[in-house]
């Protein structure tokens, strides 16, 4: 990257609120991120058992939903949103509990359609009017902190609760997640990368080796069968999807369905709002280290894109996993490589885009689908636990005082136990009781890292990233 491009954005074509970037024209193809995506399509495929269980979908129909959603993942980086999009993961149990109130069949599908369509339209409206950015700015820091922390706690509890994935795959999850955390977050491994080029190149593979390890470890411990590799191209059943699970075959849901879905939609949006906050925090942190690139994350633009995805999927392929603004685990993995400087990753858009091209390729290839099919639960647990770690860390740093942190702890616990609606209501009451007329302002006692001056850290030209701001403060 030339000196005159320091601090600038990667090239793009302006299109209203969007910044169009095309592969190989506006950004470099990043092979390590593509290869990760090729196998991490296992997490996308983990949505299949959710849909077969809740809606009674055949595997091939659920695969059609996953592939359709996979194509829409590409819209984020192509339109200028520098994230790895994914599910609204912490809200999945909330949505499944709501839909389960209706009898399985057309009525339950209508409940899902009504919910997802309203979520999409609501998000688009916030993005189009510019209200999304204002929501991010004006919600008290204690509530923002609590929502992000609560999303992290919900993600972790989903793995370890009774009936969770850990009960089925204890050894595989323990081994693979432990190694993944060492490779991504360990200070020892970070120092090892700086001293040894082999480990630096190994780290560029992200969690690709972890997924391959899970394919072997799970059968060795008797927790999953060995994969039965099949050759060819995947065969999703789009005709069955549109005939039996969309408005084309079932018609539009009645008005009563939209009314009954409203409270759940608002509760899920609170979680989406937390995902937007944490995505912004992650990218802001990366930009402090990669001073050579201006990383432009716009909450309004993000709302327009994931809102449109939800609205589209509600009509063409209702999805229990929903369409969220970020996949926390993989956004962290890509950002950690991005922090290594231009030699590691030229542009964040190249990393997130190449990853999502990889997941789409993996979904098309039957050998890849059948290779990872036995360890879908491991891949899901891995992404949930990384999301939990990152969300709790970022949520705490969102607080501006020790009082904020106390409020956030209560909000986070309530969100994980009682849901987002209760958490938000309790957060508002606590902020009113503790801050009174300073409800929006709160207080700033300088306790947390984001309120301290940011060190002027520049990446080495070849070596991996310097530690994050948070890690510097902890030391």
Structural commentary:
- By secondary structure, the chain is mainly α.
- The model is unreliable at 1-6 and 452-475 (pLDDT under 50).
- The protein is built from 23 helices and two strands.
- It has a domain at 28-139 and 166-376.
- The protein starts with 12 loop residues before the first strand and ends with a helix.
- Helix content is 66%, strand content 1%.
- Strand 1 (13-15) and strand 2 form a beta hairpin.
- 54% of the residues are buried.
- It has helices at 31-45, 47-55, 59-78, 92-99, 106-129, 131-138, 141-160, 165-168, 170-185, 187-195, 197-203, 208-220, 238-244, 247-250, 255-289, 299-316, 328-338, 348-364, 366-372, 376-398, 402-418, 420-435, 469-474, and strands at residues 13-15, 18-20.
- It has a two-stranded antiparallel ribbon.
Span between termini = 32 Å
Average residue pLDDT: 83
The topology string of helices and strands comes to EEHHHHHHHHHHHHHHHHHHHHHHH
Q: Radius of gyration, rounded?
A: 21 Å
Q: State the low-pLDDT regions, or none.
A: 1-6, 452-475
Structural class: mainly alpha
Count of alpha/pi helices: 23
Global geometry: globular
Q: What's the quaternary structure here?
A: single chain
What's the helical proportion of residues?
55-70%
Characterize this entry briefly.
By secondary structure, the chain is mainly alpha-helical. The chain is built from 23 helices and two strands. A two-stranded antiparallel ribbon has the order 1-2.
SSE topology:
Elements: E1 13-15, E2 18-20, H1 31-45, H2 47-55, H3 59-78, H4 92-99, H5 106-129, H6 131-138, H7 141-160, H8 165-168, H9 170-185, H10 187-195, H11 197-203, H12 208-220, H13 238-244, H14 247-250, H15 255-289, H16 299-316, H17 328-338, H18 348-364, H19 366-372, H20 376-398, H21 402-418, H22 420-435, H23 469-474
Antiparallel strand pairs: 1-2
